[in-house]
Specification:
- It is built from 4 helices and 3 strands.
- By secondary structure, the chain is mainly α.
- The protein has a 3-stranded antiparallel sheet.
- Helix 1 packs across helix 2 and helix 2 packs across helix 3.
Length: about 100
């Protein structure tokens, strides 16, 4: 499993995936909406996350009259752990900078 470059769009996608639940799974356009990003940004990020084993996807199996089936995206166990660790480490770095006695 390789590291992911944590750009602002990638962070937004990871946060959207982390906030998904069984009752409200993450699907392509819901991730776009929650991350406030366009599909041209979100889908390549999802592809990279999938290639690195952080995300799996599955097609909607229930009825979906009048629209195509949705593709649901979910963090793998390792992906959830890696994403949480990466976001926590990033937060610590960001907030730790101004607290070390230096000027902001």
């Amino acid at each position: 499993m390789t590291n992911i470059r944590l750009t602002k769009p990638t962070i937004a996608v990871l946060e959207a995936l982390l906030s998904a639940t069984d009752d409200a799974p993450a699907w392509g356009l819901s991730i776009c909406r929650n991350a406030d990003l366009g599909p041209g940004t979100v889908y390549p990020i999802l592809e990279r996350l999938s290639e690195r084993g952080w995300v799996t996807s599955r097609e909607e199996t229930g009825p979906h009259p009048g629209r195509p089936a949705r593709r649901f995206f979910e963090l793998t166990g390792a992906g959830r752990r890696q994403a949480t660790e990466a976001l926590n480490a990033r937060t610590k770095r960001r907030f730790g900078l101004g607290l070390a006695g230096g000027s902001v």
